[in-house]
Give the backbone structure.
Amino acid sequence: MRDLFRISIVFSILIAFIFGQDKPKSILPGPERAEGDGPFKRLVIRGATVIDGSGAPPRGPVDIVIEGNKITSVSGVGYPGVAINEKRRPKAGDFEIDAHGSYVLPGFIDMHTHAGSVQKAPETEYVYKLWLAHGVTTVRGVGLSSLEFSLSEKERSSKNEITAPRIWAYQRPGQGKDWKGGSIKDPETARKWVKYAAKKGVDGLKLGSYEPRIMAALIDEAIKQNLGTTAHLAQTGVARMNTIDAARLGLGTQTHYYGLFESMYENNDVQPWPVDMNYSNEQHRFGQVARQWSLVKPNGKKWEALKKELIELDMTMDPTMTIYAAGRDVMMARNADWHNIYTLPSQWDFYTPSREAHGSYWFDWTTRDEIAWKKFYQVWMQFLNEYKNAGGRVTTGSDSGFIYKLYGFGYIEELELLQEAGFHPLEVIRAATLHGAETLHKPLGTPVEFGMVKAGLLADLVIVDENPLANMKVLYGTGAVKINEDNEVVRVGGVKYTIKDGIVYDAKQLLKDVENMVKKAKRRDGDLTKY
Ligand SMILES: [Zn+2]
């Protein structure tokens, strides 16, 4: 009996050891790159229809030549419906992709990302591969993770040591292991931190709702240091710092919507919360914001004035509509096509309704809550579409990893939502590519290095064998469902190749890798918990 007891102790230590190994203390950096072919001395993509990202109409057949990591020519080689004159095509490459019948787009830019957490997805490989598999070749981490982790992964990705998109590191003020100034409590410390961050190599600031004099110092110093700024103007501070207040200070990007409606209330200044409102109760926090839809007047005086001034101030809108979309149909979000194959059980557990997990606020979600969100989206989308029509820049960010939204998949949903807002599919693609690149480069004062299929730019491209303008769903890793001529259900599309920095990644293989990671995790953690 005693021996049995001893054996069982040894056994449980062994188990704890094995499982302890599986659950690291912090997220793991991407493993050394084992995927992707190239870069090549001369890569030629032949016969493609190009959607160049600028808003120009598609054209083809086109041959694209890439030398190293740069696009060196994009040339029309014929006319639709006519055989291509082989003699007039660019000379052979040392690697070629046959893209006749396929579409080539600039690599996508996800402007609002996080690499996850140990609790959700401990291996960044999982997240990186999901992004690349959906054509995302650049991410703005807000932050990706800690300052040190983000900068290290940014560096490794820029050298293509890892299979990951380009990383732009926006970090929260006060971060940094060797920052000795503590939290940011006054304008002087704010400026010191921005200078510290600039020296470290950070690309920009992720701001919350700081009090006005600190916000002013942070933004002003960021501009001086050529750093970008993006703000989530949280409800806890929005009464003192809404969108127009921040834009007047020079804010580069507003992310989410917080502060936008507050900038144009008709008959209120502070949102008229119910008297039992409690911000720490996330059903209140996320349920109540939607109620703002009736507080503003579309095309009223305030609405028009706000739109005009924000455009004059050249502020980018990064709405991240996808991350709130479960609010208008939680049942659909919970049952998305991708969960079964691509969602890690640990990520799923994080989504599971809870009073503690961020964004898992389904305490008692009702039809009324969903109707409020549906109305909210209508008003929000109208503003975004008019903002774009009046010359404003709207970008695509996903904030995936919360609220049933998975990396990559959530990003494609954002494209669908922009189309729902009234964007033409070409305007959606421009939001996802050129306008993201412009927003990232603006603080540097340099022309874009990516974001279009154009000679001279970096070779970041997406190749898909279906027309995404006809149906954005063909960009989902799970593809689009169709019925073929034999009345059978088939799935079409899914990105075929993602090219980053001239390196060709087989997008479907990346998804296969993710599928295998999920299978392995399920053997350890069990299936997605049903409820
Ligand atoms: Zn976020």
